[in-house]
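Before the break, one more example. Copy the sequence into your notebook; we will annotate it together after we see the structure.
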Amino acid sequence: MTTIMASIISGLLGVLLTLVVQRFVCIKEQKVFVFRTLLANRHQITSDESVKALNMIDVVFYQHKDVRKRFEEFIEASNKKPVDGNLIITKYLRLVESVGVAVGMNDIDWERINYCYYNPIALAERTQENDLLRKAMLRNQMCMMNQNLAS
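Here is what the structure looks like once it is written out:
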């Protein structure tokens, strides 16, 4: 009888331990995903990937007060009028730094986040051209709508 009980208890403990470890690994993977995404897009903070990662912060880092505080500071800077692009970028990079600390990547510090990145000129030019094209298309649409309303 004791052998059967020992077998049942050890099996249950094994399952429980596996579930705990899996949960820990899953949470860690989510945190690293957010960090990687924010870091990879640190000079394209309006990209779809950045926005999705930013919107995951409250859920993934709910136990990290420093990360959530930095996120709130970033949101405040983003909503501030008039827009201060340098402040927004600084707050974003400080947020990335605090996410890195929360993930345990302490070697990726402010200097590395702020100054060590690859952003080719061609990519910046293409992004700027896409922005200009998008704005031109919007202006064209607005003109067409105004003409239709005037008719």
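Residues 134 and 140 are 10 Å apart (CA to CA). Residues 2-40 form the longest helix (39 residues). Try to locate both features in your own notes.
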